[in-house]
Design goal:
about 575 residues, alpha/beta, six-stranded mixed sheet
Amino acid sequence: MIWNRFIYRLLGVYPLLLLSFSALSQPYQVGFLAVRGATHAQAQWAPTLALLNAQVPDHEFIGHYLSQEQLDAALAEQSLDFVVTNPAHFMLSHHQPLNWLASYLDPHYGQARASVAATLWVRADSELTQPEQLRGQRVGAVHKTAFGGYLLVAEQLRKRNISPQELALTFSGYPLDALAYGLRDGVVAAAILPSCLLEDMAQDGLIELANFRALMVQPDSRCVRSTPLYPGWSFASVGNLDESVLRAITQALLQFEIAGQPQWGAAVRLDEVASLLMDWQLGPEPSPIAHERLLRQFMLQHWPWLASFVALLLGHLLYHWRVTVLLRRRSKECAQLHSQVQQKEQTLSHARQRILMGEMATGLAHELNQPLSAIQAYAQAGELMQDTAQHKTAFSQIVAETERGAAIIRRFRQWATQPLPSAEPVDLNELCQELVTRLSPRAEALGVKFKAELKAQLAQSTLNPAMLVTVRPAVEQVLNNLLNNALEAQVRRLSQEPAHQAWISLNVSPVQTGWLLLIEDNAGGIDEDIIRTLQHNLPASHYHGMGIGLLVSHRLVLRLQGQLIVSNTEQGTQVRLLFK
């Protein structure tokens, strides 16, 4: 190894310095990880130990060369002040109060960032040429957490889908030289060793390098290696030591050179090492005492934030309690309001029933008044007629009006309890002609002239003559109401003005959206309040006479998906009835 070239020179340069430190007042214990045994580690780290004793006055640095288990035990017992170990062991011991001072510059690579790797070796005469052939083979390693050996090679094997469980692993422990000899002697089929180890052993004359062959060889390397390079060893302090001593040690290490080559550099980051250990889910479990210490330290360091968080939590709990109280209060109020609303709805329902009954009674009385008036008129006319044929005609009209009154009662019962009958094609020409024929005798007797030029209007239509798909009884009821209202209005006008030329016109014409029925008269118009009532759909029982007929007709037209518009003209009233 390269250190052997300088050991004897250094031992000859510093003997007086080593003797002068025997009377130092305060000793410091330095633990070195001895991967190749205590003797080799003592020779490797003697220059560094001698430097510290020379450069840091009034202090004595005493070296202890330990295996990984011994080093862990010494750290747990807090018997060490400094430790020199590989990066993985440093990370795994990070629950200890370690302070990283410097990184070792490996002489093979001359840098701290990339100076640790591992090599998978087999014997030169072995039939194993690919790592996949290692399944079921006896593979030797030093320790399951050895960073410069097992962990690095196992990571590369895992990337090749070779699980460690597929190998017959055996961990021989330290020193490393024993594992190399075991591979040479055929104890194991393959061995996982730190890179440059066999090269150093061959240089020292311990083995013949030609007897070994590496697998998964990485290119461009000073030593044969099977893995990428990782950060090198660390010099760390343990516990809370004097800052001046730590500064003096760091300065001495960074200025230390052998044959013009620096031996220590600034501390480097161990992100790659931490990521590797995290992938393997490695790391010691902190003790309960360590948990308590960390918790206490965290609370002392962040007590303002913790106090603020507790205050916010208490405020949130108080707010939640207040919201809960208000919610219960509001829920109780809502329950009371719901009960009141139910009572009001019941009262309103009873009122609607009473109004509906009043409207039905009023509407029924109004509708029956028309056939009764016609029966009276035909009966009076029959008394004046002498001809038997005329008597028969009058009685036939009386029977027809009686049947119409009975039909009105049946329709009211049906519309009050059931939906409207199904729609069917209706010939408006025929329907209007029937109404005109029915009302003409009464109109002539009262001196009112009907204008119903239906055929001439409908003959010009390109549509099927006056065909409308709707409910015929309902349309007949509406037209009958409107024509009778116009006739009654003319009767009142004639009673006031006997010389008045009374007329009523009925016009049916096709429009773009359906059929338009236009009813006009010159009776002087109707009350504007009744027209406004049609817009607001007020209860019909508030009005009588022509008002009730219009309101009943308006609601019936709405059920037929139609439109009824009433307006006053210069001479009288105009009713526009639109069916789609």
